[in-house]
Amino acid sequence: MSQRRVIPLTPMAAPVRLPENGKRFHVWTIGCQMNEADSAKIAATLQEAGYAPTTHEEEADIVVLNSCVVRQAAEDKVSGKLNSLIRLKRERPEISVVLTGCMVTNQQEKLRQRFPHVDLFFDPSDFGKLAEIVPEISAFSDDLAELPHYYADPQAPTSAISAFVPIIYGCNFLCSYCIVPYRRGKERSRPLVEIVAEVERLVAGGVREVTLLGQTVNAWGHDLPDAPNLADLLRAVDAVPGLSRLRFLTSHPKYMSDEIIQTMADLPTVCEHMNLPVQAGDNEVLRRMRRTYTRDYWLDRIQLTRNLMADVTVATDIIVGFPGETEEQFQQTYDLLAEARCEKVHLAMYSPRPGTLSARWEDDIPAEEKHRRHQELERLQERIQTEVHATKLGRTYEVLVEGRSKGRWTGRTRGNTLLHFDDPRELTGTLVDVRVTKTSPWYLMGEAVSDPR
Ligand code: SAH
Ligand code: SF4
Q1: CA 55, 57, 63, 69 torsion-angle sign
Q2: 70 lines ligand 1 (CB under 6 A)
Q3: Ligand 1 test: best mutation among 220, 317, 337, most atoms within 8 Å of CB?
Q4: Is the same domain home to 97 and 225?
Q5: Percentage of residues in the chain with pLDDT exceeding 70?
Q6: Is residue 317 one of the residues assigned to a domain?
Q7: How confident is the model at residue 4 (pLDDT cuts 50, 70, 90)?
């Protein structure tokens, strides 16, 4: 059994909201959940400053683009979006265009030359910089840290049910293909009391599900006084009254300790879902990726999780076509996925990122071959997910209803599987037990067998 630590909590004051000033903001986001959380915080900050949201960028007084450069395709989308704003800025020079996210480097002079129509570039860890073009923020800049990474969009009521809470910024790994550590810096954990206070505030506002975020979320705490760990934090957040579900991502296999896995199994709010990227199934490729673990180690972590938690689902990430990946090495990845039978796999084709170690190596797998490997794994996963989901037929799962989609209620099980069902009642934001009547590789269908709660 894991050791318990008691950490005192202190209440926090809510920041002051300034009156509406008639100005409007628009936030455009691409990339990972961390970007979504940062965008929510930006939206919340602008709302506190008296701005109102608009879905139309041409009506906005401030347009914020939150960028991702983890792969070339994402970077191309950001460049395209930035270029599309040139015309808007020409027509309405008074609007402010802001760029944040992983495209922002510390060589801002280069960015200014490339995108002269952008008024402000800011590093995602430096929200306060927004005050340079939104002076109203200075009125509450001392309270900025206390604003949740959460924004209930009046046009999307489902956003009030589930929230992301970043708990650790940056990354101390140097995976040879990855740009993230260069853009997000070293790991910085947020203090436990700050995180718990944020969760308490979210739950008081009606949020039922919280996902703790970090590039290496399970490394949380090592840089804090007394070096608490994620298991301590999970216990503290689990204890917040009114919270229904707790998730966390993304974990690094190296830090997925027995204690964390046991704590996941012990705590009632922690969902039976583990997101544990493996990236490749061949030890030599893993070594050249600088992932610091072997294929067997990852499998062992998955096995322990499955032994301790009935019905747990597993998600992972894979990169195909890494420099020098031979057919045999690719086959190792194929075999690993066939053995692990994950419920969800995020597949990516290798994309060299300038400045990273692997970008110095030849990108020698041709695009068609990367596509072929990608498709082979897609087909394998479709088969596995068909089979795994078929075993769920006739069983009952608790669903947190997020809203309606294509005329049906839709939500996720604790295992993070999409489940759709028909019901005449208003169910948004409720927990309902649903019996599965039909399965597909991507989602389940069912019928409600309980009252909403
Ligand atoms: N911190 C997480 C992942 C962060 S990046 C981890 O350690 O796994 C999100 C995903 O993007 C990665 O899991 C990887 O599969 C993919 N990715 C990152 N860099 C990439 C690159 N250069 N080419 C292709 N995919 C990449
Ligand atoms: Fe990138 Fe590796 Fe850090 Fe994940 S652990 S963010 S893949 S460097």
Answers
A1: positive
A2: yes
A3: 317
A4: no
A5: 93
A6: no
A7: very low
Q: Which H or E run contains 182?
A: helix 180-184
Going from the Cα of 124 to the center of ligand 1, the distance in angstroms, rounded, reads 19
For ligand 2, say whether the CB of 279 is within 6 Å of any of its atoms.
Answer: no
pLDDT at 6 over 50: no
Q: What's the rounded Cα separation, in Å, for the pair 240 and 175?
A: 35
Q: How far is the CA of 294 from the centre of ligand 1 (A)?
A: 17
Kindly report the protein residue whose alpha carbon is nearest to atom 7 of ligand 1.
252
Question: Which ligand ends up closest to the CA of 35?
Answer: 1
Dmax over CA atoms of the chain, in Å, equals 64
- What distance in angstroms lies between residue 289's CA and the mean position of ligand 2's atoms? 10
Give strand ranges (E) for 49-167.
52-53, 62-67, 96-101, 120-121, 162-166
13-to-7, 61, 123, 131, 212 alpha-carbon distances in Å: 19, 30, 26, 21, 22
pTM reported for the whole predicted model: 0.91
- Residue range of the domain that includes 47: 7-146
| Distance, CA of 4 to CA of 278 (rounded, Å) | 30
Closest ligand 1 atom to Cα of 171:
1
348 in contact with ligand 1, CB cutoff 6 A: yes
* Cβ atoms within 10 Å of 34's Cβ, excluding its own: 26
Interval 272-290: pLDDT, tens: 999 999 999 999 999 999 9
Do the beta carbons of residue 181 and residue 427 sit within 8 Å? Answer: no
On whether both 211 and 122 belong to a single domain, the answer is no
**Residue that the structure tokens 């997925």 belong to:** 256
Pair of tokens at residue 46: 């602008």
Q: Ligand 2 test: best mutation among 215, 255, 292, 298, most atoms within 8 Å of CB?
A: 215
Give alpha helix (H) positions in 92-160: 108-114
Sheet holding 344-349, edge to edge: 273-275, 313-320, 344-349
Instruction: State mean pLDDT over 266-270.
Output: 98
* Cα gap 286→364, rounded to integer Å: 17
Helix (H, G, I), strand (E, B) or coil at 248: strand
The CATH number of residue 69's host domain is: 3.40.50.12160
Instruction: Determine the Cα–Cα distance for residues 66 and 24; give it in Å rounded to an integer.
Output: 17
**Ligand with an atom nearest the CA of residue 249:** 1
- Per DSSP bridges, beta strands 396-405 and 344-349 are unpaired
At residue 241, does pLDDT exceed 80? yes
Same domain for 207 and 132, yes or no, is no
Domain boundary among 271, 286, 302: 271
Q: Is 178 in the pocket of ligand 2 (CB under 6 A)?
A: yes
